[in-house]
Amino acid sequence: MRISTKGRYALRLLLDLAEHQGDGYVALKDIAERQMISKKYLEQIVPILNRSDILKTNRGYQGGYRLAKDPSKYTVGNILRLTEGSLSPVPCVEQEPVECERSADCLTLPLWQGLYKVVNDYLDSVTLQDIIDWQKAKYSNDYCI
After folding, report:
1. For residue 128, with 0-12 CB atoms within 10 Å meaning exposed, 13-18 middle and 19 or more buried, which class applies?
2. What b/e sequence results for 86-116 when a residue is b if at least 16 CB atoms lie within 10 Å of its CB, and e otherwise?
3. Phi-psi domain of 82 (left: phi exceeds 0; alpha: psi -120 through 50; beta: other)
4. pTM to 2 decimals?
């Protein structure tokens, strides 16, 4: 499994919005600048997030984007599934029941099912707020006298 640029950039976009939640609506050009991501690329990601009611949009002067809910309500798993589709290591484990004609005799099926479960459980347990908190903790111990 490999997370594409679209998935990684969507996560960075949402983390930037989470960090600037108190600033009102945030312009896409500001996010692009801070994250060093092309504004054009972010413009391709925003519609995916808008369709899922993750973002609130305000047009015109003082327009931009903000999170529709608190950062603690968004899991990395949900964000990546929106942008990547599936997080499955192989196609057959997405199906319930498994429709592969070899599933009854497949020695590796339990391996792929276990990996799929571990990946989803982990990514569904991490929120945008968790990532922000990890970053704050990392730098809160970094001081000089």
Report:
1. buried
2. ebbbbebbeeeebeeeeeeeeeebeebbebb
3. alpha
4. 0.88
Q: CA-CA distance, 120 to 114, in Å (whole number)?
A: 10
Residues belonging to the chain: 145
Sign of CA dihedral 101, 107, 113, 119: negative
Instruction: Please say if the pLDDT value at position 145 is more than 80.
Output: no
74-121 tens-digit pLDDT: 999 999 999 998 899 988 888 788 888 888 888 999 999 999 999 999
Contact status, residue 12 vs residue 27, Cβ threshold 8 Å = no
Task: Give the span between the Cα atoms of 84 and 89, in whole angstroms.
Answer: 12
Q: How confident is the model at residue 144 (pLDDT cuts 50, 70, 90)?
A: low
Rg (CA), the chain: 18
